[in-house]
Amino acid sequence: VETNRIEALADGVFAIAMTLLVLEIHVPRLPPPVAGAALARALLALAPNVAGYAVSFIILGTLWIGHHNHFHFIRRADRTLLWINVFYLACIAFLPFATALLASYRDQPLAFAVYGGTLLLAGAFLYAHWAYATTGRRLVDPDLSDAAIAAAKRRIASGFAVYVTATLLSLLSTAAALGLFAVMPLVYMLPGRVDRHLTRP
Amino acid sequence: VETNRIEALADGVFAIAMTLLVLEIHVPRLPPPVAGAALARALLALAPNVAGYAVSFIILGTLWIGHHNHFHFIRRADRTLLWINVFYLACIAFLPFATALLASYRDQPLAFAVYGGTLLLAGAFLYAHWAYATTGRRLVDPDLSDAAIAAAKRRIASGFAVYVTATLLSLLSTAAALGLFAVMPLVYMLPGRVDRHLTRP
Amino acid sequence: VETNRIEALADGVFAIAMTLLVLEIHVPRLPPPVAGAALARALLALAPNVAGYAVSFIILGTLWIGHHNHFHFIRRADRTLLWINVFYLACIAFLPFATALLASYRDQPLAFAVYGGTLLLAGAFLYAHWAYATTGRRLVDPDLSDAAIAAAKRRIASGFAVYVTATLLSLLSTAAALGLFAVMPLVYMLPGRVDRHLTRP
Amino acid sequence: VETNRIEALADGVFAIAMTLLVLEIHVPRLPPPVAGAALARALLALAPNVAGYAVSFIILGTLWIGHHNHFHFIRRADRTLLWINVFYLACIAFLPFATALLASYRDQPLAFAVYGGTLLLAGAFLYAHWAYATTGRRLVDPDLSDAAIAAAKRRIASGFAVYVTATLLSLLSTAAALGLFAVMPLVYMLPGRVDRHLTRP
Question: Chain-centre distance of CA D38, in angstroms?
Fold first, then answer.
């Protein structure tokens, strides 16, 4: 089984999930005549939705780059890998709902639990994806180093820590939890250079 | 006619149908102030929709893997194969509607008939796809074994049996029918290894 | 400029337009308790929407196959061809709206005019696409025969005749016009074999 | 990191954003019996939405062609380029919302500011994309000429001028600003030939 059609399906699901996020931002319906100040207030009220759009888009970008990097090393696919991908993509495609829920109920820890839980499940399947492919170098190059395999695992696992922390933090302060979700992708952007150095010597 | 653009269109339709499933799960609209318990109840009421999302996503995954496997053996395409693909994809793209209908009316045998009927029609076109391509080795390798062709046919036909059984079962018990639809993809996941062994020796 | 990214964008737009058609079929909202007979009536009332879905899906299939066949012969792209493609795809992406309008107002000639006009415009850009690419063998193989170029033009032009006839027919009988739109793709399916023989000797 | 999966994700996001634009044009809901004249008035009232669809589709086409042209020269990708692409695509996927807002509030300078601001941000990321890839010939061919790099930069920067002018113009006359947004893609279509001559000698 070739990996390129898995990648095509994944690229499609990511592209659609990213683009569907915008459907959860609704154009305000104001009764005419519309005053500029009323429209400004209505648009300001959408700020959490726009912030949710931006954060989820960037988190999807992070997950897409992670998935993309796996296929830099994965040479073959089997039925198990195919199914791990299907489960992973089911989490990705669910994220627009979780984002809309969080934007609507951003003072409710339960909304954070759904959002964080979706990301945690996605991360778990991404971890399983890498672990399955690399155990005994099952579907990757035989000369892929142990250090590279472990570095990629640590990278995914560090995401778990952030998702769980943010979800628990929402019980104390939903504002702090929102901030953590917003900051997280930045962390992935910066030390990526170090990781890449480790994984592709 | 090359097969790669058929595969690209199919990957696109599958990716979109999978992702559109989530649009049928609506964020609950609760009047403020929102109590955590009220949100929990509203989310619990969405459980059948989430279950429908998960089951349909996995069934789409099964059908995508099946379609994907065909193109592992199909070498050329002609206009008839192109049209069988268009009809097949029309069934796939209809599944988000059938899923939303079943999630809304899960105690109505008619909703099961629409859902099961959509899957049955998709299965019929998938069967026609394989039968047309392999009859007289029309569009496949001449050395593809009779056993491999028959095994793939049996695999698709076994799906028919499940769809028809689940639809009829819904007349007696809609809960049992739901359970059968949910369990079916698991069956496809497990004996897949046996089938693959038969079809790619 | 390579043609493969134009094809990728086109495959994406076709796949999405095909799949969005289903969003115009809304799950009926019945007040509980729901009787089986009431659901059956509500689903029967959706029959024109389902028929519109099927017809538009198949028409999109026809147009996709036509566009696909062009790129079998087109070797290069330039900025003009790129723009003809963008205009063509704008018509394709508009078809879900035209389909929903026709399903809602199937007794109104104006709805037929919008639907037929969208197809006519799409056909005009498809004709321009082929004429631009083949004039002086600008972007195709120099040895593509005049007969093949003319046959493909006739094929697109015959579509014009059907769209205009169906739109005008709707002024006399909307039922007959609907029938003509439904039958048209069948015509494209059957004589396709003859045309292909002409265009690829 | 290969550039082909970035292009696949971008083609997907562009195709979906283009196609989602049509979801903002809603089929009018008229109470039966429907008179032809009432439907005609209702469709005429949709004219700004259809115009917005056409203009945004063509602007997306312009941006897609620009992005497409970059990858004609970019040979490699690194994490920074990946992230610039993610930010760029976040702007692209936001455009259906900005278009719907402008179609609903086309007499409000604020709606123009959102629309123009989205395009300006998209243009800024496109500029950053090209500047990052070409500085020190980081990710492009070493023999790409300075003139070609500068010409592509000027082309993107000229878009900035139009977006800013149209947004400011909306403070004086929203009709003139609409006209400028509608005319702008035409400008990109025509002198493109000159630019291409400069960038690909």
Answer: 35
